[in-house]
């Protein structure tokens, strides 16, 4: 595996985790949105990741060399959580139904914060991997100079 492959892999991780944090922040911002343009409460969203590989890495994996070469992660989509909305009794709310219940988004703030911490840690791990790769490359150049 070359230094550039490891940097590319970590870069895909950084991009994916940054998008994941944006989706989570959007969920938290819309935690009390009871009416979207389609008239329903906001639905929690989440990013879906999938491993990616180049044609070269697929050929190498079949020959028995390092299968991690050229791989990374990609966001294949942002999906809506189809779990039911929370019903809260609030007869004075403008979006309350006849019984006085309001449909609130299916967002649990504790879950969102745990997901945000997880995404943040994954982002930090990718930054650490990039810094380690840079340090190794610099040390290798120093050996060549000696």
Protein described:
The protein is of the alpha+beta class. It has one domain. It is 50% helix and 17% strand. It has three helices and four strands. It has helices at residues 3-29, 55-63, 109-145, and strands at residues 45-52, 72-80, 86-89, 101-104. The strands form two sheets. A two-stranded antiparallel ribbon has the order 1-2. Helix 1 packs antiparallel against helix 3 (109-145). It is elongated, with a radius of gyration of 22 Å. The two termini are 24 Å apart. The model has no long low-confidence stretch (mean pLDDT 88).
Structural class: alpha+beta
Portion of residues within helices: 40-55%
Mean pLDDT: 88
| Helix-strand sequence | HEHEEEH
Q: What profile does the largest beta sheet have?
A: 2 strands, antiparallel
Number of helices: 3
**Lateral arrangement of strands in the main beta sheet:** 1-2
Oligomer: single chain
Gross morphology: elongated
- Give the low-pLDDT segments: none
Number of domains: 1
**How much of the residues is beta strand, in percent?**
15-25%
Compute the CA-based radius of gyration: 22 Å
Summarize the structure.
The protein is α+β, with helices and mostly antiparallel strands and 146 residues long. 50% of the residues lie in helices and 17% in strands. The chain has one domain.
Q: Which terms summarize this structure?
A:
146 residues; alpha+beta; two-stranded antiparallel ribbon; two-stranded antiparallel sheet; 4 strands; 50% helix; 17% strand; elongated
Write the layout of secondary structure elements.
Elements lengths: L2 H27 L15 E8 L2 H9 L8 E9 L5 E4 L11 E4 L4 H37 L1
Antiparallel strand pairs: 1-2, 3-4
Helix pairs in contact: 1-3
